[in-house]
Amino acid sequence: MPINVLMPALSPTMEKGNLAKWLKKEGDAVKSGDVLAEIETDKATMEVEAVDEGVLAKIVVPEGTADVPVNDLIALIAGDGEDPKSVSAPSGDAPKTKEAPAAAPEPKTASAETAQPADARVNEAPEGAKPNGATQPAARAEGERVFASPLARRIAAQEGVDLFAVSGSGPRGRIIERDVREAAKSGTGKAPAKAASANSDAKAAPAAKPAAGGGGVQPLGLDQVRGYFSKDAYEEVPLDGMRKTIARRLTEAMQIAPHFFLTVDCRIDALLALRTQINDSAPKDKDGKAAFKLSVNDFIIKAMGLALMRVPDANAVFAEDRVLKFNNAEVGVAVAIDGGLFTPVIRKADQKTLSTISNEMKDFAARARAKKLKPEEYQGGVTSVSNLGMFGMKHFTAVINPPQSSILAVGAGEKRIVVGKDDQPVVAQVMTVTLSCDHRVMDGALGAELLSAFQGLIERPMGMLV
User: Fold this and answer.
1) Which terminus of the chain is more exposed, N or C, with fewer CB under 10 A?
2) 3-class DSSP state for residue 199?
3) 101, HSE (Cβ side, Cα atoms, 13 Å)
4) Of the given ranges (135-149, 244-258, 305-319), which has the lowest mean pLDDT?
5) What is the pTM of this model?
6) What domains sit in the chain, N to C, each tagged with a CATH number?
């Protein structure tokens, strides 16, 4: 029996991936740990390793294929004693490409659907939860939580699909876009029509919630946008996976998370002086290279981590009907790359020294620009720091990166005239920062308390060293 190699889920939110390159060819011997292929996600290029030994008998999905759904068959490995030439791909597993993104996936044959994936690196959907499977989804109890991606929820709202009647084929049985589209096409997941009644408005209120999360106002379509301009005035550039994800996630963030903004000016004269003193005292190796070189951003990350611990109610994220409060501070940092950005997360930022944070960020930034970050290095986090000061920006507001509950927008440090201790004008280095807050997690007073704690640490930076 051949061994199935499936498109792995390389992150909890991954639904599709691009098969960038095969590193093994048909007929090559394969042993456990060998790298079979490179998969491009919306954020990075990652390697797929073999789990079992054998011969790569059949490549089902050729390299260069885009938008291959998670758990789709991509190759077959002939096991011990099996003739690789006798192995053939099931007819229902033709690769899917970008040419027909709106088309529903072809049904899988029984052999591909029931075979045990020996090379799978993540959990598959439970038995009976496969799309187009023979079994119907198990009935869910009233009030039971439905696990579905934001995109799947939005499409369900648009198509009138009841997610309680849909089986998920994503990681851990999560409902993804493909499941909703298949349910809408077959009609099995259509929500029952409600009879008109005196209290119809009250009944309609819960159904309006998904629309508020992205299913209500629709953006202009491609042809509508084209209609505003002459054809020779522009060049069309298709979005890559990263830009599509940024567009989708941040649109959802602005529609779902109610933002409010708080701004404060921080005097950074003491911080700059301390930074110079610490950098001058950094130990050097035999070649004269310093062990570390602190940036202003390193102090900002540390200050944000400590501020979250001093205001523990703000060290939380929203999760449907509750908030998750954290024991340590996890601070993401926006890193710009060509065509997008990464937000690697400094774990336990409150506990790490400034030099450790500095060296971690240099490593993260280098690997982010090479698209070599691991998913666990840029997922999660409670807050983020976005610093545009190096571009001369004095002030801006940033969009919260779900599931985080805040983000700090940092402007440039500049000399300004301020009122001194004796009510006399003095010249000081001042930096403007703006905190975007998720109103579901914190109110104005709590957000102000967090930002005040941050300001105090920035203006009296010695507190970050003890």
Assistant:
1) C
2) coil
3) 5
4) 135-149
5) 0.64
6) 3-114 (2.40.50.100), 124-218 (no CATH), 245-464 (3.30.559.10)
d(CA 413, CA 280): 21
Listed in sequence order, the residues at least 6 apart from 236 whose beta carbon sits closer than 8 Å to its beta carbon are: none
Cβ–Cβ < 8 Å for 43, 371: yes
Give φ, ψ of 363 to 5 degrees.
-65, -45
What are the CA-CA distances from residue 174 to residues 117, 378, 424, 465 (Å)?
Answer: 18, 21, 62, 44
Rounded to whole angstroms, how far apart are CA atoms 337 and 355? Answer: 24
Rounded CA separation 464/298 (Å): 11
d(CA 15, CA 67): 9
How does pLDDT run across 30-60, given as a tens digit for each residue? 888 888 898 887 667 788 888 888 888 888 8
CB proximity list for 193: less than 8 A, separation 6 or greater: none
Enumerate the active-site residues.
439
With H, G, I as helix, E, B as strand and everything else as coil, classify residue 111: helix
What is the DSSP-derived secondary structure letter of residue 43? S
Q: How deeply is 17 buried, as exposed, middle or buried, from its count of CB atoms within 10 A (0-12, 13-18, 19+)?
A: buried
Closest CA to 221 of 342, 119, 102: 102
- Strands 383-387 and 406-419, by their bridges, are parallel
Torsion, Cα 263 268 271 276, to 10 degrees, reads 140
Token digits of residue 255: 């529609």
Q: What percent of the chain has pLDDT over 90?
A: 42
